[in-house]
Amino acid sequence: MKTITRRVATIATAGALGLGGLAIAAPALAGNGPFGFGSSSTASAGPNGMGPGYGMGYGGGACHRLSVTAEQGTLSEAQKPALALMAQKEKLSHDLYQAFAARYDAVVFDHIGVAETQHLSVVRTLLQRYGVTDPTADRPAGTFTDKATQATYDKLLAQGKQSLTAALAAAQQVERDDIAALRAASSGLTAPDVEQVYTTLIAASQRHLTAFTHWSTR
């Protein structure tokens, strides 16, 4: 059983994210949302939403926040499903890492799980801005509307339950898949704010991958 005390992630129920010089209300992650957080904080900040440390102390309780300053553009009908998929992927990451955090005494899962809540909040803001239905709204932890995402989550969760080493390997796979998906979705974008978010999330996933890789060699 896990013995360390974990910091509960807090996300604004009406937090302001800077988008194109405007204050855009971030969709709620509290109450009946997929993570059920009841308290709040303001989302804004660093370029990658991650602190230094590669998971050893993993930012020392840093806020894992990010902001969007690029202006709004346009998304094609073909690009909107990709944005919705990014929300599913961020939720998958969060839910999986929190499940592993509850099972293993490895703080890297706690801290990166907190970062994923911020990433989902920003993606949700873009979904709202571009009129795309949020597929993660009101979904309990570990449940997904997309069948492929659900199958991936179930497979990785079962893998990670075998051992801490297996959980870290599953987390590394999540981050590699996220980087590939984000790079593919970035092709041909004409929306500066979405492009900025994707670029930031790629950088964050690369740091997450480094952190999980570091922990796997401890």
TrEMBL record:
Keywords noted in UniProt: Signal
Domain DUF2202: 82-214
Highest taxon in the source lineage: Bacteria
InterPro entries: DUF2202, Ferritin-like, Ferritin-like_SF
Stretch forming the signal peptide: 1-30
Protein's name according to its UniProt entry: DUF2202 domain-containing protein
Organism: Paractinoplanes rhizophilus
